[in-house]
Amino acid sequence: LSSYKIARRAFLRGSGAVALLGPLLRNIEAFAQTGQAPKRFLVIHHPIGTVLDRWRPAGNATTNEFTLPYISAPYEPLRPNLVMIDGLNIVAASRVAAGPTGDKTHEGGMVAIMTGQPTLGRIGQQDHSAGGASIDQILLDRSPVLGGAASTMKTPFGSLQLAADIRSDRSEVSPRVLSYRAPTEGQSDINLARKPLYPDTQPLNVYSRIFGAASGVPLDAEQAAALLARKKSALDFMRSDLARLRTLVPASEKDKLDAHAQAIASLEATLQRTIVPVPGGDQCVKPMAPMTFVQNGNGQAGSTLSGADYYTPGQPDFHPHELIGRAQLAMIRAAFACDLVRTATFMWSAGTNWVVFPGALNGKQITGGAESSPHHPPSHTTDPATIDWITEIHRFYAEQTAAALLEFQAQIDVDGGSMLDNTVVVVLSEVGRAYDHDFRNVPLLVLGGPKVLIAGGRFLSVSGGPLPTASNANTGNRPTNALWLSLAPIFGVDLPSLGSASQDAGGPLPDLVSPA
Amino acid sequence: MPLEPIPTRLWRLSTTQFSNSVRDLLGMTSGPAVNDTGGSSEYAFFSDTAVGVDDTLAFSLYQAVQAALEEVRPRIAELAACTEGQSEDQCAENFVRTFGARAFRRPLDASELTELLGVYAEGRKQTFSTGIESVIETLLQSPSFLYRSELGTPGAGETVLTPYETATQLAYLLLDSTPDPELIAAAGDGRLSTPEGIAAQIDRLLATDGVRSNVDRIVLDWFGVRQALSKTTKSAVLLASLSEADRNQAHITQELLTATRMFIDEVLWQGSRRVDDLVLSRRVFVNRRLATLYGVPFSGLPAQFIGADFPEAEQRAGILTQPGVLWAVSDPEVTSIVHRGLYVHNDILCLDPVPSPGDLLEQPDIKAALAMLSTERDKSDYRMNTELCAGCHSEIDPFSLILENFDPIGAYRTIADGVPVDPTADFTLSASLMGRVTGAAAFAQGIVNDGLFTACATQKIASYAIGRSIRARATCQVRDAHARFSAGDGTIQSLFREVAVASFVRTRVGGVN
Questions:
Q1: Could you give the ipTM of this predicted complex?
Q2: Does the beta-carbon distance from A301 to B233 stay under 8 Å?
Q3: pTM here?
């Protein structure tokens, strides 16, 4: 420990503030004593599928001898941690008999892959209403190790939902949300029944919430204790007000109050961090505060949907989209390191991606010669030159995701090893093939290490399933729920089935997870 | 058919309502900004009754309250309003009682008062001002401030909102903010316990400036202009009348939004004030750029918006043909007969929803046939003459065919796809719309004659008032409110009044479980 850190801990112990902090800040020290690190779960979404033959290796057999082609090549340095899975199909279903399932749509794909359950139905043209909790929330709720309600050692924040951009077609909800709580059953309005956890796109917000807002003048111990006492009395009143309301409301409103109680607890954790710095071990270092990114809904009249483009006219070297995404992923890494949270989802953009890229990208020019274009509108093309241009966008997302995950790999965890060895990361998209929204062979990576029972260095070609393969009408593929069924036991969650019969046909993948 | 009953519930303030309420409680010029970067559902034009407070919002509200406190810190003494000869403790207690009642929109009970005095005392360890600030900070983040209570009086058979809940409902409906002191007083002295008293408060509020801008916003959102404009990129061909430098579509859509708002404001508050004129008026507002784009004579400063009338020959029909609306509901390159038709069907007439085509669009013969047809008109003819499609499209496409004189940005045209436009369609809708109708103006006159537009207006404003989409047409309660409205002067003020006085707006079912 540096002398600075020792001094900081001494300050904490002597300040009287520690009594108010409760057990929350001691997680990381408790883990340090056992010599083990917490397990974590992270889902990273990149938009609009891929170009399959530029993403998966040639040949269609499971192997540990493979060459990653152009789009996925940036993941090469992560090979020891990486399993590329080919042959999983998103399977959409709806609770509405004969209603649209969302098959072959970005909107339906987002909901279907993350919840693995039939939707409540469709709103408007494409927006599909989630019919179940998303996998991250299911695991968080049920796992004894992910820091949620069922965990013995809870994290101050249950889960994080972050994004770099959420601008979506027609302002729809489903393309810009990965995480959902379980829907309200019995609510006939399916727009109100779904429970999306909207992602935050502003890194500084996330930073302030997780690590505490910039505190300005440093407080001495006495000042800190007084300020904490004031904040605590305010929080106590809010809780008491909530308890009073709880006695007055119908059962249908109790979910709302439960979530609100969790929000007050999280606010308390934020205020503690704002007033008293995170103590942590050597691994837990409060990151630098990110800049504030201008996000004005792209100047679109009336839109509250936030994001920032990759390309701005006149500023060829300024890529706020990239900077926001990397800042958000760095925030998740730091929050994991300090054990403030163990479950997170991140999306680069909405499934219907409106981030603007330059018309010429790495020497590839979009047909028509436009100076710039958002990703989604031209993605339905079969024009080879435009597909080459879109390939560069897929490559960009792979480069950035891989670079961020290399930082997870380099992050020293509380057990002295690499954080990536204690983390299950799933990298996915909401469709398989971009131009026609094909749901077969959705691009999927699972990263981790032996401590989370993931043996890397493999290309896993799924076989023996009941679903059609990408190449022809043969069967062999399996539903994407097979992935969630396989991963759940890593976190101590018994998940024998998920979704409708067609959505989990065939059970877990036999070869993904090592025996415990 | 009666309305589906509304359960007792907590209705969270929208972030705008939160900000407006903080502004009004603390006497600020404008309310604090609330970070809402995740966005929310933009469908409902009313605030969402399903939402609560999650981790992210709780922190955003905390930050907003800190920003507000920063701003009012120099005025804490003024807010505390201690009187001569009052002890500090007496002043604090008085402040907690009065400010607490305004923030919670009802008097505090004894235990709340005691607990809040505890909050004050913790802050008072620093200074008196800190104590007062702590109370403000606490109240503005407390659930009873953040949720509109619609729980009624426990124990009664039929649950009716309490007078304080009624004051809250009227305030957020009409002002989009917290009740003013007069409303709270009217709740306290029993005036809001009678229909006459409620009507008197509605009339008082309808005469205030705050109501005007709020009603304009509600009407604008009823037509979905704000939401729809946000995601439309038009083909450059349609903007050919503008110079290269003038074709920034983000700027154009922003200006169209302004122009549409000005149109609504003029019709509803400066002209006849009649709701019907929303679909009958030939008015338009333009700056230099929009004037060029829509071929309207213009003589103002470039950025200035001035009112003008479209030529009679264009057969314009108010909101149905407003450039901002047509820009928003049309596709980038074509009018989209289906989207425009659905818009009239759903938002101008509030007809019962038609089912989505589901897998029909994937049927090989239909898919192949539509792919062969290049014009919107030909595609519509195909749908209207193909048995599987015609059932629904005969209820959608005609509304759009009468709008075919307006291109995908809402500019007038007489030729489309190389052939003269024939804006004619057949209807079996009502007495005035039976048989052949040509053009938007004739159609608009028909829906006005038969009360179809104001019936939909009543349904929309009722939906807004109860925070729930009323999808079924002509429910008993909406029909009654529409009948009362139709017997009156037909103004937007009367429409809000007849909805707000209706008892269904204040009736809830269920209680504590």
A1: 0.91
A2: no
A3: 0.84
